[in-house]
Amino acid sequence: MNLYDSKILLVDDNRELAAMIQNILRRSGYIHVDCAESCVEGLRKFCLEEPQLVILDIMLPDGDGFSLFRKMREKAETPILFLSAKDEDNDRLFGLGLGADDYITKPFLSQELILRVGAVLKRAYFMPGKTGPGSAEEEPVLKLGGHEISFSNASVVYGKKTLSLTAKELQILKKLNENRGKIVTFDALCMAVWGDAYYGYENTLMVHIRHLREKIEDDPSSPKWLLTARGLGYRLKKED
């Protein structure tokens, strides 16, 4: 499956804007672009169509995009890009802190939208080591004490518990594991997760690290595996 075969779901109640975005994406080569105008319709199409990417407006007639985001993530770890007229830093950080893959504000340039959509899809499915949508290729299991992390299933098994990793948590953990025992700088981690446009995501990275520790550490407040290199970055400790 190539990049342009990816199914994209746009959830926005502004019909004129939705039609414009749909046209921009289709002219760029994305042929599978569907639209929904509400939270209810968006969730229904999300479950029915299983898209590879969701472009999600925050202000919707029957709710808000943040709540819909949570419901979608309960179903699948599909990459989600927030689209909003809200440009406040708090809203941006809140959306990214939830685990969103990107956040773009209205108005925007057509080329900016195309670049961001392409970047999110490439990071999620087409980067080296990624298997692409629909692929069943397995990746090794990472063991951190009593925790077993499956990269292919984006899950953590601990005793009888199974926890899901978000797309961002998975990308962070993969980058750390590729350099296990070595310090990975803040910039390198942000680049691995958000690509070239990573500037300004350092605080968001800290949020993801905190959530990740809650899933892979026995005591998140006193981590044994995901260690902080003060002023530099983070390090995934090797087995003793």
TrEMBL record:
PROSITE patterns per record: OMPR_PHOB (PS51755), RESPONSE_REGULATORY (PS50110)
Keyword Nucleus: no
Keyword terms: DNA-binding, Phosphoprotein, Transcription, Transcription regulation
Single GO MF descriptor: transcription cis-regulatory region binding
Pfam families hit by this protein: Response_reg (PF00072), Trans_reg_C (PF00486)
Coiled coil: none
Domain (OmpR/PhoB-type) ranges: 139-238
Residue positions, PTM 4-aspartylphosphate: D57
An individual GO BP term: regulation of DNA-templated transcription
GO cellular component, one term: cytosol
DNA-binding region: 139-238
Function comment: May play the central regulatory role in sporulation. It may be an element of the effector pathway responsible for the activation of sporulation genes in response to nutritional stress. Spo0A may act in concert with spo0H (a sigma factor) to control the expression of some genes that are critical to the sporulation process.
Name the record gives this protein: Stage 0 sporulation protein A homolog
Organism: Schaedlerella arabinosiphila
